[in-house]
Amino acid sequence: MSVLRVLKVVVNIGLVYKVQHHSGIIFQFVAHITKRKRIVPDILAAGGRYDHLIVEFRGPTATGPVPSAVGASIALDKICSAVANMEEVPVVSSCDVLVVPVGHSSMSRAIKVIQKLWTAGVSSDIVYDVSQSQESLLEHCRLAGISFMVLVSDKEGNHLKVKSFEKDRQTEKRILESDLVDHFIQKSRTKLSEDRNREISEGVSLQNAKASQLGNSSVSESHGSSGTMNVNLIPPDKISGSSRRRYETQIQTRLQNLGSHLQNKSNDIEVLAVSP
Fold this sequence. Notes:
Largest sheet: 5 strands, mixed
Strand order of the largest sheet: 5-4-6-7-8
Helix content: 25-40%
Shape: elongated
Number of domains: 3
Radius of gyration: 27 Å
Number of helices: 7
Distance between the termini: 37 Å
Low-confidence stretches: 217-226
CATH class of the largest domain: Alpha Beta
Mean pLDDT: 75
């Protein structure tokens, strides 16, 4: 797991996804992608724990504790479509840090350095071909999207040289080997803070835009406009389309009074009906 790549995690206790298959935690990976010239959220992968399926399908003579299982399905077609629609395809790096031994004598020390990084969860790789020039390695980092390069040399004593690449800017810092892991953890925290501040700023701008739209629409729209109620049935087993529509119509009829009350507060209502 990479320390420098921080994913935003949202806990939603109302998330419902194939409850007849999962037991325990379920999850979805959501990304904001471009569709029809608009940026919208879309689910690119989903999954969860399948413990009870193991109990259901294991052999009748099987004994011992039941193992846990976690699985996920990835929507490769959505991912490929999203990448194809991007104006500028982002560079996906294989690691965040490239450890470079300067000379054969520094190889064993470089291996110890990368072991420390791996233990701390920092995504990193090592260069075994010491004959490569620093210029070619710098170009490799630029093309591969690697953010940092650590130079390990016996001539530096207990210090290491850390080169950082941010956009078109390159910096170099000489730090103690014992401080290397803390250095990257601090970099991760700084990046997370910057991402959060950017999200807050974007959220405020979006709220202001929505408030402006609501203010403009309230002049022309009547206050008594009614919304729609969408019912989605999640049965334990597969059923025909006609049966699904019949059940959904029955549920919608029973919730009609409740829907008329809620529609005063919200135009659109989504109902997820989970059958035991």
